[in-house]
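User: tokens in, sequence out, please.
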């Protein structure tokens, strides 16, 4: 089950797990980190007690993770859950992680250490410029403010001599073992939920989490809100400005997630706009999932 941030995935996943004797397997690139449960909207302690969760809050903040490592870890977790006679319920909004698991990543050429070192030494502006020269279309496909994404995109383009979109579009055959569901909401409803979630997150301890996360690596620092809160803590912005910046970034991320869901997956959708509590959508969700049975 996937969908944009703030749509209500966690609540519905919990209801599904309790109904179907399942365990939840996370697919979120930031909820994997220990030490940022509020900032990354990890399941609450009550939810974690109610149903076992996997690949949530397990990785040290100093470490980096990627889709290949996720897919390997997720396959191991899926096998372990199934061996206990439980139903794995995969839920998260990181599309690349999900597709790496459902389709499998295509083989990429071995890393060229010299090329990687050269690109790593580039300032972000130079890397963006080089990427634009090598593959102009790639500039519209990634977050140009994210040094990790920019440098990785440039590495792929230079090493494969192919456009980034072509490399990204190369997947192994999709697996037919997954039934899927994409959760959606009308735009204004989702925007209101995101703004409320951001305010609650800031009031609920996210600022203290970031204050004590000075050892965080590049991966954890990419979590929406981390850098914005750092700026607030350093006195470079007010709390109101911080809240507004996080809400804006979250809305932009949700828009990208919806685009990914529409273009990369072909699962049925379930609109939660008129459903105040996502768990109330359980009967309809079960109906949609049952219709996908082989």
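Assistant: Sequence out:
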């Amino acid at each position: 089950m996937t969908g944009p941030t703030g749509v209500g995935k966690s609540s519905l996943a919990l209801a599904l797990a309790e109904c179907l004797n399942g365990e939840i397997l996370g697919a979120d690139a930031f909820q994997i980190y220990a030490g940022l449960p509020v900032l990354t909207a990890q399941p609450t302690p009550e939810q974690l007690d109610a149903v076992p969760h996997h690949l949530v809050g397990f990785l040290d903040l100093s470490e980096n993770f990627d889709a290949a490592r996720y897919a390997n870890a997720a396959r191991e977790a899926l096998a372990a859950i199934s061996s206990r006679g439980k139903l794995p319920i995969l839920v998260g909004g990181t599309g690349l992680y999900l597709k790496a698991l459902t389709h499998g990543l295509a083989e990429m050429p071995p890393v060229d250490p010299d090329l990687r070192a050269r690109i790593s030494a580039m300032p972000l502006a130079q890397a963006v410029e080089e990427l634009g020269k090598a593959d102009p279309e790639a500039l519209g496909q990634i977050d140009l403010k994210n040094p990790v994404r920019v440098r990785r995109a440039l590495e792929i383009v230079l090493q494969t001599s192919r456009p980034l979109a072509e490399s990204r579009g190369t997947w192994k055959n999709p697996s037919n073992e997954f039934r899927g569901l994409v959760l959606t909401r009308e735009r204004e409803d989702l925007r209101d939920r995101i703004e409320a979630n951001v305010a609650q997150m800031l009031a609920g301890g996210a600022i203290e989490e970031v204050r004590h996360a000075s050892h965080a690596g590049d991966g954890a620092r990419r979590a929406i809100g981390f850098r914005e809160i750092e700026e607030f803590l350093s006195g470079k912005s007010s709390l109101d400005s911080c809240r507004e910046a996080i809400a804006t970034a979250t809305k932009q991320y949700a828009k990208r997630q919806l685009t990914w869901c529409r273009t990369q997956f072909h699962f049925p959708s379930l609109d939660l706009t008129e459903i105040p509590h996502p768990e109330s959508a359980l009967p309809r969700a079960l109906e949609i999932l049952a219709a996908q049975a082989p």
